[in-house]
Structure formats: C-alpha cells, structure tokens
Amino acid sequence: MAEVTTTNLELQIKNAAGKAKVVRVPEPSLGLDRVTTEKAAQDLIEANIFVDDSGDPYVTNVGARYVKRTVDEIYNVENEPAV
C-alpha cells in the first residue's frame, strides 16, 4: 500500500488564563522562519477570531512548529473493488 505523508504548521497560542489552542495550517510552505510565523500568529491574535468556551480571546503567541504525519495503510475494505 502507498505511504502518505502530510505536513501541518501548528501555531500555538494561549488565552490570559493560560489555556492553549493550536491553529493548524495544512500543507504550508516549508522553511518558514520565526519572524514569519510570529507575525502570522500575532495577526490571528489581533483579529480576535479565536475565543475559548468563556468567550475570552487568545492573547499570547507561544510558538510554531511543523508536524509531519506518515500513514502506511495496510488495508482498507472501503478502497477494495466490489465483489
């Protein structure tokens, strides 16, 4: 079976109470630097589009990282031809 690898950019932010949130960007450009990812996270924070269950906004940029996931499927009956 085919091996499939996906990459996400994770921007990590927190609210004033320290509750963390991860914003995932699928298949980002590779080789992004700290300045670029910090600005992206800060722009998200300033847009006030992410709030916790209490309605409090996320206000602190914590970090950014690439996360790669590799799936090597052994079988999947839904992908097999009908008999």
From TrEMBL:
Recorded superkingdom: Bacteria
InterPro entries cross-referenced by the UniProt entry: DUF2922
Protein name stated in the entry: DUF2922 domain-containing protein
Originating species: Globicatella sulfidifaciens DSM 15739
The organism's taxonomic lineage, starting at the top: Bacteria, Bacillati, Bacillota, Bacilli, Lactobacillales
